[in-house]
Design brief:
By secondary structure, this protein is of the alpha+beta class. It is about 45% helix and about 10% strand. A six-stranded mixed beta sheet has the order 3-2-1-4-5-6.
Length: about 375
């Protein structure tokens, strides 16, 4: 008999539901997180039993537990799962049972579970990104303190040898000097760890032949290549290159209702093209302006946003056309058709002159007849 497991995971406890092939709930228990309590509920199930759980904070241990004991784990997209199974009564017991029912009906919006080597590489690269961001915040604090007393940064910056010496000679109050020294000490501690991570990244890049292929692209260095490999993972899970680019955020979509650009996974985490300048002094940082020049705009233009209206009849009217088309028409050289007040563009299609105060909802008034 086929059975299905739905697990509603929380920080300290989890709700485990077991559903049979007919949809009947065989068990639905709330247990503390850990191998033994969960195996007491599902340990007697046959190997290969599918188990579904939502992607949330701290679920790596559950993935490892299910894989070690022969279960088939299924990671669920939380927001899409709530859209499918919206229930008036919502609690942990209902959520776990719904996950099992959706798994039984094959309606789960699943997410890809990265294997352990990919997860380890992601953790390493994201750790370096977080340390670099923290170092940048500390440097900005020093910039703010120095700017409060009217000092401008030197030509070489604060972080070189001459810049540090110049910073030490500034006449600052006692409290401000103490803050600057504390920030410099923290920056020094972070820099040592960032250098260690840079060395490890270079070693991993040298041993991976895929990095050598990716670094042939303009502006892609070892760090960016490893970020692409770690975040994408198994590239065969994408049906086409268009879907891969959309997932990465290189082709953001603009919804017609809110006109807001929605970015993808890598771009949201600032691990994609933003990582081009992450490794100081490498090819990534040097080629960043050239790569940006080759890339299209990250927000769609007004013409792309208006793609739903461009084939409608009223779009050809000069006052109903979008603003970017009206500006383009004004910039075109025009000529007046002989014997008429119409303006004819180079294409040969004439449209009438209209006043900016015209009311398109009213019909034109008839001319008064004078006999």
């Amino acid at each position: 008999m086929s059975v299905y497991v739905g697990i509603d995971v929380h920080r300290k406890r989890s709700q485990v539901a077991v559903i049979d092939a007919k949809g009947e709930v065989l068990a639905n228990r709330n247990v503390p997180n850990g191998a033994e309590p969960i195996l007491k509920v599902i340990g007697g199930l046959p190997p290969g039993t599918p188990a579904a759980f939502e992607a949330c904070y701290g679920t790596s241990w559950l993935v490892q537990l299910l894989e070690d004991y022969g279960f088939d784990p299924h990671l669920v997209h939380p927001s899409r799962c709530k859209a499918i199974a919206s229930a008036r009564l919502k609690n942990d017991k209902v959520d776990a049972a719904i996950l099992g029912q959706l798994l039984r009906a094959d309606l789960l919006p699943e997410a890809w579970i990265a294997p352990p080597p990919v997860r380890a590489l992601r953790a390493l690269l994201r750790h370096r990104v977080h340390l670099v961001r923290l170092r940048t915040r500390l440097r900005n604090r020093i910039h703010a303190i120095v700017a409060d007393y009217g000092y401008d940064r030197p030509a070489g910056g604060y972080w070189t040898g001459p810049g540090r010496a110049w910073l030490a000679t500034l006449e600052l109050p006692v409290v401000s000097r103490e803050l600057v020294e504390d920030y410099l000490g923290l920056i020094g501690g972070l820099q040592a760890r960032i250098d260690r991570l840079d060395w490890e990244v270079r070693q991993r890049a040298r041993s991976d032949p895929r990095v050598k292929v990716l670094t042939q692209l303009p502006g892609v260095g070892p760090f960016t290549a490893l970020v692409i490999l770690a975040e994408v993972g198994d590239i065969s899970r994408f049906a086409s290159a268009r879907k891969l680019a959309s997932w990465a955020g290189l082709t953001p979509t603009v919804r017609g209702s809110d006109r807001v650009a929605h970015y993808g996974h890598i771009w949201k985490g600032r691990l994609g093209m933003a990582a081009l300048g992450a490794v100081r002094g490498s090819a990534d940082r040097q080629a960043l302006p050239g790569v940006r020049a080759r890339l299209p705009a990250h927000r769609q233009t007004a013409g792309e946003e208006d793609r739903h209206h461009r084939h409608r009849p009223q779009a050809g009217h000069p006052r109903l056309a979008p603003a970017h088309r009206r500006r383009a028409r004004r910039s075109l050289p025009t000529r007046h058709a002989p014997g008429s007040g119409a303006v004819t563009p180079p294409g040969g299609v004439a449209w009438p002159r209209v006043s900016s105060k015209i009311n398109l909802s009213r019909a034109p008034a008839r001319a008064r007849r004078i006999d």
